Amino acid sequence: MPLYHNDDQAMLADTARGFIAEEGNIAKQLRHWRDRNCKDGFGHGLWKQMAEMGFTGMLVDEADGGLGMGHVEAGIVLEEIGRNLTPSPFLTSSVLAATALKHGSADLKGRYLPGLIAGDSVFAVAIDETAKHRPSRITTRAEKSGNGFKLTGTKSFVIHGGSADMIVVAARTSGSDEDAEGITLFAVPKDVAGLSHDHVRLVDSSMATHTRLDGVELDGDAVIGEIDGGRAVLDAMLIAGRVGAAAEGVGVARGAMDMTVDYLKQRKQFGKLIGEFQALQHRASHLYSEVEIARAATIKAQQLLDAGAPSADLMASVAKAKVAKTARLAVQEGVQMHGGIGMTDEYDIGLYMKRDRALAEFLGDAYFHANRVAELSGY
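Request: output the structure for the sequence above.
Response:
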């Protein structure tokens, strides 16, 4: 498969680029909501506009009212979200939760997907239970209670947890904490008794929660997939989320690089544009090549995932690790080449560094995924 977009995907990219640059830019969204200390960290008006563009239901099957597109198309939108640092629940709602709901019952889909497609609902996923991403260990328990289950446990850094109309929760219905099997996914509505949140603002100004489930009672129809068989659904959701996070990371890297190159063409030192200095040209060209490699790895992972290839899991970790390293290089070079002003809030380049730090940790950092690549390759 060629590592570039076909004509339809290129048309989508043009549309997404123009729309998000106009409606989702830093001044209109990130700075606006950050400076107002918004409890959600994003604008529901923009989320509704994204629904009108058809973006929110891209990964939802046509039979369920969505567009039935693939991860390449979702990645196009995510790259533009990253390029503009647009605060949005697209990754958690339209990628992670939407992937989980593909495995849900007709009742669950009918209950939640219309709100997602219309831009009226926001979803979150609650997987991790510590500061680091360790999905192999699930200690939150779901015990049989009448016709349903009672959930008890704590989840850490649930992105948009306080804004979500529904949270996809991974809980253990059998086995010990480290067992691969015995996991079940649940769709937990926001207003259920026993659900509480400790709100935290992350370094990039996005909102997350430490979420506590204190005997949360759910009916049996809240189960996503099969009881004790949720590991496969969880893995599918994680692969989709990691590929999506990589696409957004590519956008962060490209946005930081473009901003830096523009600055090199404007700033003068010793009577010359600093972009004329060979040392900075070498660094800029090296950064460009790294960003293109990261983007190619991400497109490959998207294509494999859309094709249902077994190697998609491996390539998702390759992309996530490569993008994390590349985005860090892009923001570090960007701040450094901007000089002292790169550390001030007046200039946007520092905001890219903050977003990179939060995104790099989401669903596993570079070290986590480098180790996964080694293990999946037989080492």
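The longest strand covers residues 207-219.
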